[in-house]
Amino acid sequence: MRIRTVDAFAERPFTGNPAAVVLLDAGPYPDDSRLQALAAEMNLSETAFTRPLPDDGEADWELRWFTPTTEVPLCGHATLATAHLLAADGLLPKGGTVRFRTLSGVLLATHEPDATLTLDFPTARLTPIPVPEDASAAFGTDAVAAWDTGSLGMLLLEVADERTLRGLAPDPAAAAALPSGVVIVTAPADGDAEHDYASRVFAPAVGVAEDPVTGSAHTALAPLWSERLSRDDLTGMQLSRRTGLVRTRLRGERTLLGGSAFTVLDAHLQVEL
User: Where are the alpha helices (DSSP H) in 130-177?
Assistant: First the structure.
């Protein structure tokens, strides 16, 4: 069985967020325990498994995502990676759109004429909340604001500036104890930056200490910064060690996430799922 690793939301190989992707044949998925075991073996933020749905009128493929410890309901970078491989295999032509059935409903990915990819995801609903008391201990700095992100299930914190964001020193245990399994920390971009806003994402509660680039988090970042900057089309920079760019276009209840991807590993499993 073939397995490939793709750097998603990357400007060049070895940046962005690596995802492992397995394109399965039509038919039932392997047992969940086997999928989870392979995701643990790969030890990346997510491993994606997709299978064609030839008889489904609403979707073309079913797509599932696993961290090293659990299945998750939404993942942007592994969706981008999967669409990239469908395009590479001639299953998604330029200008074409693929429909994925997922735990978060049917998600779309379009192969743009310039070879980039655009994901169509639901926009997160932001509700201002008090900054959690333990946030300062978790990240070594004070947050200036906080939001609940509704069904996205992530806690969104804002810190004073990009320098503060870059210098965060998270305590994984304290971060995992905050009221969400995933915490997005964001700040306005430096004045001379080419991006519009910056972020980092921490998910120790689901086995990911810091996620390199988190597409789904930008469904919450896009409405926040689009309102703040009075523009619907923005570029977000995720300031992990690998870094990555996500182009966001706010379209009401949907957010478009654009980026590039590179295949860096093409291998075959020596065991059966």
Answer: 135-139, 162-166, 172-176
